[in-house]
Amino acid sequence: MKKIAQASQNPDDAGLQKKAQRAVNFLETIAKALEPASKLAQASQKALPIILKILGF
Questions:
Q1: Over the Cα atoms of the chain, what is R_g?
Q2: What is the total count of domains within the chain?
Q3: Which letter does DSSP use for residue 49 in this model?
Q4: What is the pLDDT of residue 43?
Q5: Which of 12, 25, 43, 50 has a C-alpha 20 to 30 A away from that of 35?
Q6: Which pLDDT band, with edges at 50, 70 and 90, does 8 fall under?
Q7: Reduced to 3 states, what is the DSSP secondary structure of residue 13?
Q8: Can you give the residue range of the structural domain that contains 47?
Q9: Average pLDDT of the chain?
Q10: CA geometry: angle at 21 spanning 33 and 5, to 5°?
Q11: C-alpha distances in angstroms, 14 versus 1, 20, 49?
Q12: pLDDT at position 29, please?
């Protein structure tokens, strides 16, 4: 985030722009991975009570 902020304040600094782009790409990758993990967690929360009921708990 710091590199992105620095790059926005120094648009002519090619080195900072490159670092900022890498940071943005990294954050996008993390965000894309969170969506499936979130769906799995939601499915698990719904399935766990059903499984426990079947097992008699």
A1: 21
A2: 1
A3: H
A4: 92
A5: 50
A6: confident
A7: coil
A8: 2-55
A9: 87
A10: 100
A11: 17, 10, 54
A12: 92
Of the candidates 53, 54, 4, the one whose C-alpha atom is nearest the C-alpha of residue 27 is 4
Q: Determine the residue type at 55.
A: L
* CA dist., res. 22 & res. 49, Å (int): 42
Number of CB atoms found within 10 A of residue 39's CB: 10
d(CA 47, CA 35): 18
- Burial (CB count <10 Å: 0-12, 13-18, 19+), residue 20: buried
- Percent pLDDT > 90 in the chain is 23
The band of 15, judged by pLDDT with boundaries at 50, 70 and 90, is confident
